[in-house]
Design brief:
homotrimer; 353 residues; Udp-n-acetylmuramoylalanyl-d-glutamate--2,6- Diaminopimelate Ligase, Chain: A, domain 1; ten-stranded parallel beta sheet; 18% helix
Chain lengths: 353, 353, 353
């Protein structure tokens, strides 16, 4: 259980930062706009300074620079107010601890090994030879097939599915409805029989430590090698990672993004949301791919990339979009005009000499 | 149970509208193309008048205007044939009634309160202190965590997940695989430790009355304030609503649309499908966002917006799309040509004066 | 159970092809890059010939043409190395056989009919009058509602949901989290009551033989007629098929694609991933729709279509994308320049005659 209230003074003793102004009892964390005198809020975006000045928050977490203009009130000064605020949220609302025990309705295979301090919810199913390490919580309705390894301190929410042979590191969090290790989309066209022939997907999925996977996200097992999500990668809801993908450490992938098979995303990159990334591509470390952006070839140089069609009123779109189909022609016309004009100018200059 | 058959005469007595022509026994509702003499169908799109004339439907629901050209057959005349048709479908196929009772395999927490006329399916899990009001149906495999409130006459299909603390109004329908209240995608970069630091998501999700949520849709809980879906909003399959979103009353969101965090969609708007809407934006009431459209900034004025790249044969696309990367340059060339031509014309005019 | 090892000689006796070079014991299938002397790999893309030459694979599956340059090693020569490789994967990893029996925690309706050699996993729910034919496997947590028919040799993974009245052919494979037969998104605006009126979705979903459906994919039931997926269609993860859609035989739909209601996709087409296809459209057989492509009107002629906005550095995108909103204007300017220049040229020619 987290704290219910804490004084500003006790807070800086625990989390650091410098207290300015009167001590205040903090009972709640909230937004600048909604805050009242026992609430703590934060100012990280300088554009919200006016809003911060108007806020009735009892305590504001701010940078030294912002502190200068927020006089006469209680402040906690820190280099990174957003991170400080994050730490405060976790102080009030720490991650739940497992209620040790296996619910009687859970179905646990005879050869599964579950650490005694784990929490296994109602109707959970654990397959043969699967190992669940210390302090891990698995909520109701989740199915973990055979030959999986789940690390320590993991938090697997309700109605998750993990196919056979997948491996999770420590402190992994999986949200409801996500599917780890379904077959990759691999098939050969069987010409003699005029039908698709399914390729066995013999790899698995390996998730590193501190990985978080959002609700209804799917990460397919590898065709031959494993699909790998490295340490501290954070993946939002409804993301799709194709077979044999490699997602580097600390990568953040925003919701609704799809990454086709065998693509590698370098460490510390930020992708999406709703980005659409082709297969067999390479995205270098520390790359940013904008929301709703389609990536159809590898990127050679780190940087910030985008490709969205600009929003317009529908009538304007109808008028403008049609020309996209003729850009090549339009370009040819411009070239021709340039040539004609150059010729004409040169002709006139000649005739006037 | 719905009706199995009804005469056209009895139908207008029940649902209104004006009967023209002979009375007909109606046993089925179907499309203009498939209809036979005991079937009822409707004409709402004037472009289908020829198809309506050719249809063998025993009864047609039409407007007064269409009635003029559909002589010699049985018609039901009404202002809004599509709505009338909708009412007929519900007469034949009303929403199922709960079969009161809790399946013996369901796992109900001791402090949960479930109205006695509710239907609770096999392997359903209901958490501590959760309240389920009158006549609500919860189908097999659904998990509702602790401290939720589910209104009257709700219909929650199989394998839904509702995280702790969420609130549903009355007559809410949730389709299979949807996840209500998973954590929003909130984390701060923890520079000193070179890793992400998760921000506790302390808000919940609040769904108003008459909300419908499609299969595998995800609606994240708020970071601080709640994520709110107002009365009668209708959300299709595989939609993603980020944390702190506010979806106004009567909004319709078509499948595969993603709306990032803290975005507000005004009442009566229609969005998508596959629309991609950024975070912290404002979309005014009664706005239409076209399918596959990316919205990256707030919209000031209601209207119909679009932004899709027009479809082409792949070879044409290759030829044309490359120029998009040089539109700025192309525009500069046009400006230069205009200047040169103006100069030349003026020079010639001068020299001829 | 599949084979653990096989000699190259025994392999060609079983699967055909021509063995060249020394016989080799094969214990594993892997990529060119990772292969060692007891591994088999394949060369199907001629661009990987250098990689094949460098590979340490004990056996390579190749075409006659590639065989010419891969001298001095063990080869299996065949017309279609990719298909041959697919067959080898299935030899080593055949589809699992059902472990006949119904798990005691499964909840089976009294009137359901389940063939005795079926495998029914833990916490599975089968509704009234549903029929499950020979050798079908249904894994844990799956819910199949009433009045469904599931063919022979189907493989339904964990946590799948199938709504009432749906029909599956033989050898259908459904991955976890997919939802078959949820209500289509159909409602009429009820003007008198200022709210949406739901249209009963009275059709079902019919899946042909050999259909495969990916994880978290949703296929909605028809409004009136059925939604139909024909034989051997292969649908990847997180795909959405709207109500009344018709997907032709042997169609492949890559992940994250959405196809709105009543659209027909002709046989042998390949769609997506992340393609966005509107409703009431017709896509002819043998059509390819590129990844991330939006289709907003019917296609008349088979071919390869695309519509993605080309990727750019964000700063270049900002500079270029703005001109899209003025393409019509740009085009007008070019027309004007052409006219002016033509006039000027003609004027000059006249004056010089």
């Amino acid at each position: 259980m987290g704290v219910n209230q804490i004084t500003a003074n006790a807070l800086v003793q625990q989390l650091g930062g410098q207290l300015r102004g009167d001590d205040v009892l903090i009972t709640n964390i909230t937004s600048l706009r909604q805050a009242n005198r026992n609430d703590i809020s934060f100012l990280s975006n300088p554009r919200l300074r006016t809003e911060a000045q108007a806020s009735r928050a009892g305590v504001l977490i701010v940078t030294e620079k912002s502190a200068e203009i927020l006089t006469g009130r209680t402040l906690i000064v820190t280099d990174d107010p957003y991170l400080y605020f994050a730490r405060v949220t976790r102080l009030f609302h720490p991650r739940g601890r497992p209620k040790a025990g296996i619910h009687p309705s859970a179905s646990i295979a005879a050869t599964a090994q579950i650490a005694p301090n784990c929490e296994i919810g109602a109707h959970v199913v654990i397959g043969e030879r699967t190992i669940i390490k210390d302090n891990t919580r698995i909520l109701a309705g989740t199915v973990i097939e055979e030959d999986c390894t789940i690390g320590q301190d993991c938090f697997i929410h309700a109605n998750v599915t993990i196919y056979h042979g997948c491996q999770l590191g420590d402190r992994v969090e999986l949200h409801s409805g996500c599917v780890i290790g379904a077959d990759g989309f691999g098939m050969a066209w069987d010409k003699p029989n005029n039908q698709w022939f399914k390729i066995a997907q013999t790899g698995a999925v390996v998730l590193g430590n501190d990985v978080e996977i959002g609700a209804n996200t799917t990460i397919d097992r590898g065709a031959i090698e494993n699909t790998v999500i490295e340490d501290d990668a954070k993946i939002d809801n409804q993301v799709m990672i194709g077979h044999n993908g490699k997602i580097g450490a600390h990568v953040a992938i925003v919701a609704c993004t799809g990454i086709a098979g065998s693509t590698e995303v370098g460490a510390y990159s930020v992708i999406g949301g709703a980005a659409m990334i082709g297969g067999h591509l390479n995205i270098p470390p520390q790359t940013t791919i904008g929301a709703a952006t389609a990536v159809s070839h590898s990127i050679k140089e780190s940087g910030h990339y985008a490709s969205i069609f600009p929003l317009q009123k529908h009538n304007d779109w109808v008028k403008n979009a049609v020309h996209i189909r003729h850009l090549h022609e339009m370009n040819q016309k411009i070239k021709k005009l340039e040539l004609q004009l150059a010729k004409l100018t040169s002709h006139l200059t000649d005739s006037q000499e």
